[in-house]
Hints:
This protein is α/β, with parallel strands linked by helices. Helices cover 36% and strands 27% of the residues.
Amino acid sequence: MLEFDGLYKTYGDNAVLRGVGFAVPEGSMFGFCGANGAGKTTTMRIAMGLARADAGEVRWRGRPLDEAARRRIGYMPEERGLYPKMKVGEQVAYFARLHGLDTAAATRASDEWVDRLGLGERRGDRVEKLSLGNQQRVQLAAALVSRPEVLILDEPFSGLDPVGVDSLAEALLEQCRAGVPVLFSSHQLDLVERLCDSVGILARGRMVAAGTVEELRRREAGRLLRVVVPDAGPGWAAHLPGVRVVSQQGGDTLLELDPATDDQQVLAAALETGRVTHFAWREPSLVELFREAVADPAQRQEAAA
Ligand SMILES: Nc1ncnc2c1ncn2[C@@H]1O[C@H](COP(=O)(O)OP(=O)(O)OP(=O)(O)O)[C@@H](O)[C@H]1O
């Protein structure tokens, strides 16, 4: 288990982390989400010893991470860290040697990962000649080449085309299946939903939501109602008590109901407009869960008032 426990970090008067805690079991994939500037990179940098926490610690298999343990972590930093003049194959082999492989093993591992990430034909090219997405693949190969026990990846999918996304996703799932805990940050919530066993959403210095996507959904279940009323005017639901109109396109309306609101009253109001062709609870998407979780509670109360 990779555990983040009670992390605090303040830069000047900016309290970035205010008690961040979560765990990534071995063999599972954790999607680390949060708005820009929420503190995801800071959390990962603390794990890697690149920033110091004011309080709290990160443990791997019950022990606080030290330099030796960190050498067994595959890390992809946000700022990336490739040598532009080095050739792709040499670059990946270089990272393998940094993690303790001898020259022959490093070359073999480099060849394997360069091929698996679809860079075989670029092996002899300098990194600087590669597109951004291909440089990203080299960076990933560098994180994977030492057969790490843990993977910590800062926005590994950003900038990749769909084929790149698929090959990266497959590589990460394979690591998971081999028992490696994988933590990655991403703003691509569809990907997080598709790949991750669990998700954490960071906001206001804390994990405001964490669990499987199913658990997060259940927490919000029974709140989103889709009603299709083809003959209704645009404002038909605007003044219903305990109801917020999330979206409306033509008669296709998505409503959020307060827990105490009676759905049958909403149905009655819908019928008053004419035909009702669809009336059903809808599971929130991860994007909707994210919006809900990161929304400032004070603003939400204001909006409801
Ligand atoms: N070295 C630093 N000195 C001062 N402030 C910093 C430093 N590093 C990060 N911060 C601040 O900490 C906050 C969190 O930044 P961080 O990069 O961890 O967020 P993030 O969730 O990774 O954001 P993004 O999704 O945009 O990458 C931001 O307000 C940032 O300006």
